[in-house]
Amino acid sequence: MIKNTPLISVIMPVYNTANFLGAAIQSILDQSFEDFELIIIDDASTDHSGTVISEFKDERIRKYRNEKNLGLAITLNKAIRLSAGKYIARMDGDDISLPNRFELQISALKKEADRVVVCSTCQLIDEEGKKIGNWKDDKKYLKTDQIRSRLPMNNCIVHPSVMVTKDIITDFFYDPVQHESEDYDLWLRMSSDGIRFVKIPEALVQHRIRKESFTRKRQKNVHGKLFIVKQKFIFHEILKGRINSFVTKTFLFSFIDLLIGTYKYIKNLLKR
Q: What is the average per-residue pLDDT within 19-44?
């Protein structure tokens, strides 16, 4: 039975993931650590996601629907504001959380000092749920100092694996301007402000790669996208008067992205 104030608030934005949504929700309900609420916000889906959500009667679930599509960042911020738990856990409507995820993450958070984000590695799966390997950067950068060193170059954090205190995430929130890269921008802003990332090396999430997913589309213009994300992040930090070694390193790598992206763009033009 859910308490008046659950320890964990799981935030799950949903948009047109009906074919995978039931399994995603059930993977949260099957957690070995049961002191949580599951906040599901249907971002005006046009498929039958709403029907799938309505079929679950567990009292730990809080169901909402946006009247119009607001996008991931705004919907995530809405879910954070609605949350009651001390900790916020991310979850997507097409992924799978393994049964011991919350148990291990809560244990890790309680061992750490303040200003820490706990994440884990992931197992990649396809639309049929078949295992298709691992994310290279996810498995390669495991230690806190490795993650901090890598982030100015590229993302190495699995978004739906993250758990953090509500106090921390409400100091930052997601930036709607960073459309489709709101997670990477959040990690950059957190790292610049001294937040540490602790990654559990065990895969606690199965991350689904879909044919229509942004992750797959982004691979075609990754360096150009990275340049834009980093420039917006740097502008944000300058406005706050925060220029440090992390911001400077990100600035330098943004121009490497620009050079590589321009080279690949010209190379593709010459092939046509």
A: 98
